[in-house]
C-alpha cells in the first residue's frame, strides 16, 4: 500500500512539473486582443447591414437544423471570411468532416485570413498530426485547453486517476465565429457524428447562426479562453521525438487535407449556400440576442456564482405559460426539480425531450436521470424519450423540408435547447446537469423572437410525437413508469426501457451508485 502511494505521489509530482514547465513556456507566447475593424463592413454582414445598423443591440438569427446543412453553412462562412475565423470546440476528430473543414480553413489562411482553433484535450484524437501540421501555417494557430501530459490515449486513464480534480474540468464550449460578426452556436462539435456523416452513429442536434453584436460578444469570450493560462499551443505538447515524426508526415497529412473526399460534390452546394445567404433567401429572425459564458477560471477556481445559472434562474422566474426542454443529458438536481414542481403547481406547462436508454451515449447519465423522470411525470410534466431509430422517422433540412432516412443507425439526441413562453430561445452547449453547472465551462445565447421560438417549438412537438411518452400506471399500491409509443399505427406500451437488453438495464441500475455531481 505504501509503495502504491509513493508511486502515485511521484507520478503526481511528475505531471505537475511537466505541466508547470509547459505553462511557463506558454507565458512567452503573445496574447491577442480584439481586432480593430468594423465587423458590419465585412462581406458577411454587408447584405444585412441595413437591418443590423438599425439597432446594435439586436441580431439576426437563422436555424441550422440538420447536420449536412450545419457543415455546409460553416464552410460557406469560411469562404466568405476576410479577417479572422475563431473556433472553440470540445471535440475534434481526424475524420472526413474535420478534414473537409480543415481544407477550407487552410485555403482561407492562404488568402490572409487569421485562423484560431481552440480544442479541449478531452475530445482530441491522440494522433495530433492534422492540427500540428495546420499549426505550422503562419496564419493558423492551434491551442489545446487543459491538456493531459500523457499523449497516448491508453495512458490517459492513469493521469485521470492521479490528477482527477484537474482532468475532470473540461472546456465544453462550442463557438464558430467569423469576422467578429457571424456566430454559430449549438451542441455540435467537429466530427462526422455531428454532421450526419457517420455510418454507425449520428447525433440529432440544432445550431443557430447569429449575425450582429452578439458575434462580437462571443469573440470577447473566445479571447478570454485563448489568452488563459490553460490554453496551451499545440506544438508544446508532443515530445521532440513525436514532433520529428509528425514533420516526416507533413506532406502526406497536407495532401489528405488538401484533397478531401467528395470535394466536387459539396462545392456546388456550398456555392448555393453562399448565394442564398447573399441574396437573403434564408428565413432570418430579428431580435435581441444575449451571449452568456462561464469565465475560463471556472476550471481552476470554482465559484458559487455562475452567470449561466443566474440567467437560467432569472428567466425561469418570469416564465408563466410554457417551457420546452430538449436536453441530451438531463439531471436536474434537487434544486431545479423543486423549481419545476413549484412552477407546475403555478400552472406552467413543462415539456421535456431527452434520450431513452436505447438512444443515449451515456448510460450512467440515464441512470441518474431515471431518478427524476418519475417525479417529473407525477408532478405533471410531459416527458418524452427519443427512440433509438429516431432519425428513421423525421429529419429536417435548414429550409424546413422534412425527409426520412432509411435504415437503423445508433442515433442519439444531442440538442441543448430551452424555449420559454414561446418567445425566448436558449441555445448553446449547456446541459441541464451538475457537470455543466458546476464543473465544465459552457456558453449560450438567449434569443428573443417569438417566430423563431415557435418554429423550434413546433419541431420539438413533432419530435415528441415520434418519441416514447412516459406515463404513470398504477400497479397495486404503487405507480410505475410506462413508455407509450406508436409503432405500425398501433399504440404500444413498455414497462421497461424499450429496445434494451437485461445487461444494459443492469449496467444502468449499477451506475446509480455514482455521485450525480461527477457524471
Automatic annotation (TrEMBL):
Domain PLD phosphodiesterase: 167-194, 409-436
UniProt cross-references to CDD domains, sorted A to Z: PLDc_ymdC_like_1, PLDc_ymdC_like_2
GO biological process, one term: cardiolipin biosynthetic process
Gene3D superfamilies xref list: Endonuclease Chain A
Residues forming coiled coils: none
A molecular function GO annotation: phosphatidyltransferase activity
Alphabetical list of InterPro entries matching this protein: PLD-like_dom, PLipase_D/transphosphatidylase
Name of the protein in its database record: Phospholipase D family protein
Amino acid at each position: 500500500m505504501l509503495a502504491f502511494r509513493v508511486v502515485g505521489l511521484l507520478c503526481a509530482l511528475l505531471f505537475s512539473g511537466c505541466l508547470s514547465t509547459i505553462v511557463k513556456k506558454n507565458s512567452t507566447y503573445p496574447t491577442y486582443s480584439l481586432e480593430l475593424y468594423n465587423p458590419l463592413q465585412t462581406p458577411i454582414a454587408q447584405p444585412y447591414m441595413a437591418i443590423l445598423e438599425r439597432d446594435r443591440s439586436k441580431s439576426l438569427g437563422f436555424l441550422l437544423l440538420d447536420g449536412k446543412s450545419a457543415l455546409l453553412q460553416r464552410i460557406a462562412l469560411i469562404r466568405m471570411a476576410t479577417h479572422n475565423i475563431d473556433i472553440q470546440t470540445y471535440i475534434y476528430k481526424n475524420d472526413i468532416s474535420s478534414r473537409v473543414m480543415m481544407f477550407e480553413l487552410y485555403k482561407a489562411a492562404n488568402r490572409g485570413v487569421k485562423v484560431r482553433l481552440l480544442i479541449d484535450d478531452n475530445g482530441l484524437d491522440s494522433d495530433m498530426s492534422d492540427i500540428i501540421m495546420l499549426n505550422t501555417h503562419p496564419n493558423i494557430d492551434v491551442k489545446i485547453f487543459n491538456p493531459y501530459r500523457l499523449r497516448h490515449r491508453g495512458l490517459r486513464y492513469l493521469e485521470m486517476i492521479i490528477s482527477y480534480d484537474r482532468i475532470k474540468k473540461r472546456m465544453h464550449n462550442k463557438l464558430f465565429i467569423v469576422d467578429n460578426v457571424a456566430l454559430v452556436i449549438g451542441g455540435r462539435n467537429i466530427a462526422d457524428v455531428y454532421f450526419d456523416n457517420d455510418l454507425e452513429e449520428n447525433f440529432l442536434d440544432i445550431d443557430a447562426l447569429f449575425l450582429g453584436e452578439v458575434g462580437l460578444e462571443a469573440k470577447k469570450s473566445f479571447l478570454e479562453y485563448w489568452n488563459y493560462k490553460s490554453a496551451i499551443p499545440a506544438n508544446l505538447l508532443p515530445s521532440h521525438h513525436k514532433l520529428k515524426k509528425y514533420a516526416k508526415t507533413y506532406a502526406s497529412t497536407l495532401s489528405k487535407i488538401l484533397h478531401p473526399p467528395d470535394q466536387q460534390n459539396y462545392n456546388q452546394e456550398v456555392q448555393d449556400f453562399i448565394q442564398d445567404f447573399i441574396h437573403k433567401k434564408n428565413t432570418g429572425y430579428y431580435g435581441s440576442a444575449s451571449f452568456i459564458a462561464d469565465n475560463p477560471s471556472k476550471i481552476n477556481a470554482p465559484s458559487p456564482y455562475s452567470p449561466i445559472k443566474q440567467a437560467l434562474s432569472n428567466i425561469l422566474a418570469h416564465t408563466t405559460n410554457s417551457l420546452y426542454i430538449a436536453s441530451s443529458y438531463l439531471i436536474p438536481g434537487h434544486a431545479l426539480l423543486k423549481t419545476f414542481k413549484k412552477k407546475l403547481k403555478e400552472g406552467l406547462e413543462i415539456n421535456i425531450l431527452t434520450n431513452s436508454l436505447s438512444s443515449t451515449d451515456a448510460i450512467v447519465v440515464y441512470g441518474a436521470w431515471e431518478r427524476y423522470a418519475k417525479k417529473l411525470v407525477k408532478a405533471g410534466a410531459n416527458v418524452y424519450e427519443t427512440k433509438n431509430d429516431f432519425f428513421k422517422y423525421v429529419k429536417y433540412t435548414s429550409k424546413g423540408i422534412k425527409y426520412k432516412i432509411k435504415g437503423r443507425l445508433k442515433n442519439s439526441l444531442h440538442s441543448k435547447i430551452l424555449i420559454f413562453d414561446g418567445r425566448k430561445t436558449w441555445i448553446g452547449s449547456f446541459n441541464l446537469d451538475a457537470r455543466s453547472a458546476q464543473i465544465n465551462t459552457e456558453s449560450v445565447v438567449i434569443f428573443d423572437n417569438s417566430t423563431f421560438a415557435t418554429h423550434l417549438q413546433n419541431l420539438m412537438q413533432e419530435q415528441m410525437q415520434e418519441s416514447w411518452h412516459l406515463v404513470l400506471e398504477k400497479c397495486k399500491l404503487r405507480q410505475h413508469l410506462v413508455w407509450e409509443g406508436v409503432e405500425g399505427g398501433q399504440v404500444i406500451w413498455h414497462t421497461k426501457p424499450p429496445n434494451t437488453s437485461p445487461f444494459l438495464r443492469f449496467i444502468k441500475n449499477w451506475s446509480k451508485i455514482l455521485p450525480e455531481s461527477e457524471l
